[in-house]
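Figure-free illustration: sequence to structure, shown twice.
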Amino acid sequence: MNDSTTVTGKRFTTQRLALMAMFAAILCVSAYISVPLPFTGYHVTFLNFIITLIALVFPLEQSLLISIVWLLLGAVGVPVFIGGNAGLGYLMGPLGGYTISFILVALLLPLLRGAKYNRIRFTVVSVASVIFVDLFGMVWLMNHMPWKTAWIAGFFSFIILDLVKAVVVAQIVPAFHKIMQNQVQE
């Protein structure tokens, strides 16, 4: 039996499942690592940093599974969304667009990044992903507030810090690959 770090056919190794569970837990905790923004009541969290890291490190099916586990936990009431929120009502509310966009990032980034690490390509897709998240979330906010307010509160408030996080996450991918490979081999 092959106990490698990759998916063997349709099967996941025990070590890979444990690693995926650990990253799902880290994703849940990342909602609590946040900085409240003045005047808006919103938070800049590490959710997009962690979901981008997951999407850049794990294969497509694993990235998607980790994010779906997180989404389902939040949907059934576990407080894992932005600001420790939870529930289906939250997903339909003003910040639900950001949450939904994270699932799309977990799906799209593994397809766009390529199979082999390339610093420039990973940085470009990482930056594109945070721009997508902030735009998607801002458009969703337009259903709950005037477009000008949504643009300022939902895009401009987040984009600078999100771009910094995107560049940083793309640079640390090789270190995470190495750590993960060592963990699975032990």
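We now fold a second protein in the same way, so the two outputs can be compared directly.
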Amino acid sequence: MSDDDVVSFARGTAPVSGTAVFEIFIKATPEQVWEAITDPALRARYSFGVGTVSDWSPGSRYLAAVPDVVEIASGENLVVDPPRLLVQTFDALWSDEVRAQGTTRVTWEIEAVADSCRLTVVHDHLPHDADAELYGGWPMILSGLKTLLETGEQLTTPGSLLHGGPG
């Protein structure tokens, strides 16, 4: 098998067909997962140093940013049903290339499974030729979320430290 035959989200060779789905299991309660998604300080610890600020009501706006450094994304909270479901529009802001991809949608679905949770993140409404940069960060973000909630520690991969180090 050659490198050209490998399917990779990171390299942008995975078939997306408008939707990228990521599913993980986390040893945490739905309330803990919800808090980690919606609390800006917690979010910054696993999401490239980027906090997400909103009042988390249906129809409200959110901004994901490192204040005075970079704005990453903005959008509208379409469905807010704590601690079970969050559906948001997603406008990527970090480069002209991703801005040109247009508005997409991100759904966070949290389901209790025994003493853990299944977290499914669906990033859809992606353009047919979506740049992998638009959806390729989810595995690192979700791995950071899982690590933080299960161990209290942060990932120290270079991408995880992009806008802030371990805290």
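Summary for the second example: DSSP finds five helices and seven strands in the chain.
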